[in-house]
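agent> Task received from the user: take the single chain below, predict its 3D structure, and emit structure tokens. No templates, no multimer pairing.
agent> Plan: (1) validate residues, (2) run structure prediction, (3) serialize to tokens, (4) report one or two observations.
agent> Step 1 OK, no nonstandard residues flagged.
tool_call: predict_structure(input=
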Amino acid sequence: MASLILLFLNLLYSAYALKTSKEYAKKLSELRSQSERYLKLKAEIDSKINYSTAKNYAKSDAFTPVDWSKISILKEIK
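)
tool_result: status=success, residues=78
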């Protein structure tokens, strides 16, 4: 009798383990597809904006970034 109970519990656990494994595999494949989509979108945005070229041009043209703490409009808003 005890062996039948153990066998039944083993079958229940195996079913649970298979279900969980399938869920994890599905989530992993979704994560991979989202990662690929993110990389494609990032490459597309970089190519359209061409941020790296603009950044290099700004550095070569002696561009100095704005110090936002020195702007009076922002001080008044706070």
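agent> Step 4: summary for the user.
The CA atoms of residues 67 and 74 lie 11 Å apart.
agent> Done.
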